[in-house]
Amino acid sequence: MAIARVVSFEGVSKDRIEQMKREMNEGQPPEGLDATELVVLHDPESEKSLAIVFFETDEAYRRGDEILDAMPAGDTPGKRASVTRYDVAMRMTT
Question: What are the strands of the beta sheet with 79-87, ordered from one edge?
């Protein structure tokens, strides 16, 4: 069963989201991060964002959690408000 790391951020401007898109398209993921997917949701009016990172195993999640927790604040979308681990109970794309 896949595992999701869901992080909520506050103070995330539209400009910051655009900057992060450019950086992510041009760069590489952090070394050792074994994530299978990243989804970022953004509400520009409230300047809130959710980042959902998917991992296939507990070990990949643990390593990813350590790597992402160690990231400098300037590399994140905004002020980190919460970090929660979820089992992915269902996943569907159309």
Answer: 37-43, 48-55, 3-10, 79-87
In a domain, 93, yes or no: no
Residue 71 CA to residue 76 CA, distance in Å, equals 7
Q: Could you give the number of structural domains in the chain? A: 1
In a domain, 43, yes or no: yes
Distance CA 69, CA 94 (A): 32
Whether the Cβ atoms of residue 69 and residue 5 lie closer than 8 Å to each other: no
pLDDT digits (tens, 9 = 90+) for 15-30: 999 999 998 888 888 8
CA 31 to chain centre: 15
Name the amino acid, one letter, at 31.
Answer: E
Instruction: Determine the structural domain holding residue 43 and report its residue range.
Output: 3-87
Determine the Cα–Cα distance for residues 6 and 52; give it in Å rounded to an integer: 5
Asked whether the whole model's pTM tops 0.85, one would answer yes
